[in-house]
Design a protein that fits this description.
The chain is an all-alpha fold. It has twelve helices and two strands. It holds the Pfam family Ank_4.
Length: about 260
C-alpha cells in the first residue's frame, strides 16, 4: 500500500524491502497534471452515469418532461384548436347566400334563425336580389311573410325589377297578395325599360294576378316598349289577360262618364 501527497512533499512508499527505500516526490506541475486527469475522468464518468440513467428511465417507460407551453398557449389550448374555434365563429355569422338558400328550400324556421343570428333582411346578392325577391321568385309565401314581418323593403329592384315583378312572372298569387297587403308600389317600373308588374303579368298570361293588380290601382295605360299591358296581351295571345284588361277599359270609361 502507498500514500501520495499532491502538495509537493515527499511521499514515502512503505512495505518495500529495506534495502531499497525510496522517496517519490511529485512536484507542483506533476500534481496539477494529475489533478486535471482526475477531474476529467470524474467528469466523464458522471456524464456516462447520467446518460445511462436517462436511457434506463426510457427503457423503464418513465415519462419524459414535455416542452413548456408557448406564451400564447397558457390556457393549454393549441394553436390548431384556436384556428378551429375562429373558423367556427366566422361560420356562425349568416350571409346573404345562407338566407337565400333557406328561402329556396322554403325553410322558414331556418330563415328566422338566420335573422335572429344577425342576418340582414335587405341584403342583396351579386345580382341585386334580396331574400324577398327570391321568396317571390321561388313562390315561397311563408318565407316572404317572415321577411315582410322583419321589415323587408318592397321597392328594391334587381336585374328584373321589384319583388312584385318576380311574383307576377312566376304566378305566385300568395306572394302578390302579401306584397299588395304590405302596400307595394303597384305601378313601380323596373330599372331597365319601364316594365310594370301589370305588364309582366299580362305578358306571361297571369290573368288572376292581372285582376288583383288592377283592383289595387295598377295603371293599364302605362307603356313598356311603347305598348300597354293590353297590347302585350294581344301580341302574346294571352286571351284571358286580354279579357281582364278589356273589361277594365270598359269600367274605366264608365267611371269617366259618371264623373
Amino acid at each position: 500500500a502507498f500514500a501520495c501527497c499532491l502538495s509537493g512533499r515527499p511521499v514515502v512508499i512503505r512495505g518495500l524491502p529495506v534495502l531499497l527505500p525510496a522517496l517519490l516526490v511529485i512536484n507542483s506541475a506533476a500534481a496539477a497534471s494529475l489533478t486535471l486527469h482526475i477531474l476529467y475522468l470524474n467528469s466523464t464518468s458522471c456524464t456516462m452515469i447520467q446518460g445511462a440513467s436517462a436511457s434506463e428511465e426510457e427503457r423503464a417507460g418513465g415519462a419524459r418532461d414535455e416542452p413548456a407551453l408557448n406564451a400564447d398557449d397558457q390556457t393549454g389550448a393549441c394553436s390548431s384548436d384556436c384556428a378551429v374555434e375562429s373558423k367556427n365563429t366566422l361560420q356562425a355569422v349568416p350571409t346573404v347566400e345562407d338566407m337565400i338558400e333557406a328561402v329556396h328550400r322554403g325553410d322558414k324556421d331556418e330563415l328566422q334563425r338566420l335573422l335572429a343570428a344577425g342576418g340582414q333582411v335587405n341584403w342583396v346578392d351579386d345580382y341585386g336580389s334580396t331574400p324577398l325577391h327570391c321568396a317571390c321568385f321561388k313562390c315561397q309565401p311563408d318565407c316572404a311573410e317572415v321577411l315582410l314581418k322583419a321589415n323587408a323593403l318592397l321597392h328594391v329592384t334587381d336585374m328584373d325589377g321589384t319583388p312584385l315583378h318576380s311574383a307576377c312572372f312566376h304566378d305566385s298569387t300568395a306572394c302578390v297578395q302579401l306584397l299588395l297587403a304590405a302596400k307595394a308600389a303597384v305601378n313601380q317600373t323596373n330599372s331597365r325599360d319601364g316594365e310594370t308588374a301589370l305588364h309582366r303579368a299580362c305578358i306571361n298570361g297571369r290573368d288572376g294576378i292581372a285582376k288583383m293588380l288592377i283592383d289595387a290601382g295598377a295603371d293599364a295605360s302605362m307603356l313598356y316598349r311603347d305598348k300597354t299591358p293590353l297590347q302585350w296581351a294581344v301580341e302574346r295571345g294571352k286571351k284571358n289577360c286580354q279579357a281582364v284588361l278589356q273589361e277594365e277599359e270598359k269600367l274605366a270609361w264608365a267611371r269617366k262618364l259618371e264623373a
